[in-house]
Amino acid sequence: MRDDKMTADALTEAKTAARQAAFPRRKEAHDTAGPGRAGLLSSVLAGYRGVPLAGYWPIRTEISPIPAMEEAAAHGPVGLPVIEDHGLPLRFSRWEPGCAMRDGLFGAAAPAVDDWITPEILILPLVAFDRAGTRLGYGGGFYDRTLEGLRANRPTLAIGFAYAAQEAESLPREDTDQPLDMIVTETEVLSFTR
């Protein structure tokens, strides 16, 4: 929930500071990570076989959900986010291992051919998280708008996927920030009751 004591400018500054602190932790974790980091994510998704889900194509130093997405694609539809424009929610195009890809906005790859799906599970990249289920992204609000819209129509499970090193003690939160239902790292699974 938004801290009413903080002004909008103070919240923006606090989020910027939290990102600046988190990026080096994520980079260090990424640089030292070995293969097989999606094992716990695969285990979590195994309980939802066949449920439409959307992951992401990792950019920069994001932890890769691709191995877990490949396993899930054998059982049901898997999508990747498509950024259509600033200020709009994401749409999700069906992805299969080895499918042709295209470059999207902000360097996010997407399937070359759009075949839209509506996911019931979202695997979200993030810059930082806390144990209250708060996710700090890049600041564009794409996932918050998207989750709000999806959740208005049906329950949608939001799973943040990150390195354990991306954990922050606490993060600033606004009313528009959509909470995570679960956070999966290479070492643990955190679940939140809402």
Would you write up a description of this structure?
This protein has about 190 residues and is α/β, with parallel strands linked by helices. It has a single domain (about 10-190), classed as NagB/RpiA/CoA transferase-like (Rossmann fold, 3-Layer(aba) Sandwich), CATH 3.40.50. The chain has four helices and twelve strands, in the order ααβαββββββββαβββ. It has an eight-stranded mixed beta sheet, sandwiched between helices. The radius of gyration is 16 Å and the shape is globular.
Read across the widest sheet, the strand sequence of neighbours is 6-3-2-1-7-10-11-12
Spans of at least 5 consecutive residues with low confidence: none
> In angstroms, what separates the terminal alpha carbons?
13 Å
CATH-wise, what's the superfamily?
Answer: NagB/RpiA/CoA transferase-like
Rg, Å, rounded = 16 Å
Tell me the overall shape. globular
The averaged pLDDT comes out at 92
Measured as a percent range, the helix fraction is: 25-40%
| CATH-defined topology | Rossmann fold
Tally of extended strands?
A: 12
Number of helices: 4
Count the domains: 1
What profile does the largest beta sheet have?
8 strands, mixed
- CATH structural architecture: 3-Layer(aba) Sandwich
**Which CATH top level class fits?**
Alpha Beta
Structural class: alpha/beta
H/E element sequence: HHEHEEEEEEEEHEEE
The proportion of residues in beta strands is 15-25%
Keywords: ATP-binding, Ligase, Magnesium, Metal-binding, Nucleotide-binding
Protein name: 5-formyltetrahydrofolate cyclo-ligase
InterPro entries: FTHF_cligase, FTHF_cligase-like_sf, NagB/RpiA_transferase-like
Catalytic activity: (6S)-5-formyl-5,6,7,8-tetrahydrofolate + ATP = (6R)-5,10-methenyltetrahydrofolate + ADP + phosphate
